[in-house]
Amino acid sequence: MLAYILRRLFYALPILIGVNLLTFALFFIVNTPDDMARMQLGVKRVTPEAIAHWKAERGYDKPLFINLAASGLSTVTNTIFFDKSARMFVGDFGRAEDGRDIAREIGARMGPSLAIALPTFMLGLFVTVSFALLLAFFRATALDVWGVVLCVAMMSISGLFYIIGGQYLIAKVWKLVPISGFGDGLDAWRFLVLPVFIGVISGIGSSTRWYRTIFLEEVSKDYVRTARAKGLPETLVFFRHILRNAMIPILTGVVVVIPLLFMGSLLTESFFGIPGLGSYTIDAINAQDFAVVRAMVFIGAVLYIIGLILTDISYTLVDPRIRFS
Amino acid sequence: MNGWQLVILWSDGLVWLLLAAGLALGGLIARSPPLRVAWQRVGANRIGMASATVLLAFVGIGLLDSLHYRVALDGKPGEPIRYAIEVLSVLDALATPLRTRNEKTYSAPLASRLYAKETLDQPGGGAQRDYPRLKHGGLHLGERENERLADIAFTTFRAVVLAFLGWLAVVAVVASTVNGAGWRKIWRGETAFAWSAVLATLGVLLLVAVPVFSLSGQYHVFGTDKVGQDVLYQILKSVRTALIIGLVTTLVMLPLAVLLGIVAGYFRGWVDDVIQYVYTVLNSIPGVLLIAAAVLMMQVVIDTHPAWFATAAERADLRLLALCFILGITSWTGLCRLLRGETLKLRELEYIQAAQAFGVSSTRIIGRHILPNLMHIVIIALVMDFSGLVLAEAVLSYVGIGVDPTMTSFGTMINNARMELGREPVVWWSLAAAFSAMFILVLAANLFADAIRDAFDPRAA
User: Fold this and answer.
1) Is the pLDDT of residue B95 over 50?
2) Please, what are the domains in chain B?
3) Is B71 helix (H, G, I), strand (E, B) or coil?
4) Residues contacting residue A105 through CB under 8 Å, at least 6 positions apart
5) Is the ipTM of this complex over 0.90?
6) Cβ neighbours for A65, distance < 8 A, ≥ 6 positions apart
7) Is B242 on the interface with A (CB under 8 A)?
8) Biggest CA-to-CA distance, chain A
9) Per the domain annotation, does A304 fall within a domain?
10) Over 50: is that where the pLDDT of A314 sits?
11) Do B284 and A290 touch (CB under 8 A)?
């Protein structure tokens, strides 16, 4: 098991290097640091000195890959690539445009992100799986047909509508919870109710339909007929046989997103003013803070790869036939 | 009438190219029996055909909006003709009243006065706070402003009667011209093609569109936005943006996904490894972040090269296409993986082994034997992606990495209107109109996609 995980981590390394090279190419070769400097300084007051100063301040004045001016090991280390990209592997993301340390900022913002994303994820999974199970149980009846119609209608509504409409109705008209903001400690729950609720509602449409398809595929399999033939009641067939066997396809889609919960949700966080990683990313995009966007891309890739490994491990937990070789 | 100059924006070219490709594909399908059978199954699906009718209406609006021109400016004779900086489309010309009759600021749907009180100078001197009359909405009423509701009701009634008569005419034409139809069979839904659904949808569309059209001559049917622009006009303009995002993106994605997916599955070995590596790397970056990074970079390129674009419309257009390109680059991986897996299965089948044994070349095997057997996956993926892309555009525009802010789209409309629910009195119409139009488009696309999937997926049958 441990050997397997280590090997998978080792395989993940080339992918991370690929992500790193891709973002490096995007941020430093497609656009040179000069372009970035001009962008940040504004077009009007641009002088060569100002650009040079801007670049020197941020360490963008070095050569890209190989520094011929330096000697020894620092021909490789004293470059933009080593400074800005390679260091990300050890968790050093440098500084944002406002001078703050990105790694520390990310650490502080993970908590609020998780406080929203984790309950949304758990509750959403529970609600959609139960709803899908219900539809599959009453398959080909009026309940199923109208349930699917409801799902298609719900997945055709823009996610922005759920947020804007929910905020207006629940927070502004009914005044049940604050519109936006975030509190410390246990006091935060008042701010969390609405985003979590809206997050769950907006995910119902597509997930329910997806899980229903999975369940229906299982329903038509031979082992289900056998279970019915030996006289099991339909409820037992569903909860003991179908639900368990449907776990594999469900896990494939679900486990991989668990690590990404740390990243938070861009929309929810920015609408509800939650100081998490999602709103951090949006702010960085709006301020054109390339360093932060670069860091978030890298972290997102790391978390995704962790998710893939977790998915494989979770298979062994639900299906004893799967062994690691 | 002044002279005019045809302007073909890049996206216009692609739209018409797509249309031509679609028609050519239709010709190919008509010649291939299995595909024809599948499309006949789609044609028999009532929900599918009803949604296809709605989609066609949207496509019609989009196509009208994809013929662009520039009007010549008045100049002295003898001088070279100069053209206006503003690029207009045929839709703009048809909707000139909607485009030009702007109010001062917000006004509610069908209103004759602004939404908020202002201090007005009285004719006899002094000032009074009241809702000022609109410059255009309900202007024809003159002094008889209290008859507004009666006027609206009468116009609507007249338009409904007209729409109904027009619809009856269409039904009569269809019933008499289509082979083996006849109105009795259509009414009972006994035709092979779901004419009943198409005609019913058309009836509903006419009953909505004709009254809206006739009211829009005198009123702002969906109200006006902050700068007094007609919301109905913006909705019409947004349709093209949504269609381009949904269709051109798949055009970018398709060659990548199909080519790489088949090559990886067919040749295996190191080719497979390389392609798998590429899509795993792209896949492991969360989509929004990759798009954000790419759009930021594109923005820098556009900003540092202002000389590339003759008009603002061209710049916005290129940004739209770049967005499609970026969305395509980030979204081909899913289809590619699907096609690779399917090709791996196909290449082990006996008839392909036989073709290999006969010495048929690889390109020929791929073209003749593998690609046709993957077409159903490609078609299903195309229609399934469309609705997701339309929804994604709205989110991306909100985040600030979507289309150019000067380009009308559902996303920019929502983005501009998102603070309006916080106003007193509440301004709900532009949000409601944008969300409803988007909902109808996406719902129709989703239902059509379901019909396509049911007809093409061999497992579903």
Assistant:
1) yes
2) 138-216 (no CATH), 237-456 (1.10.3720.10)
3) strand
4) A96, A280
5) no
6) A76, A79, A81
7) no
8) 85
9) yes
10) yes
11) no
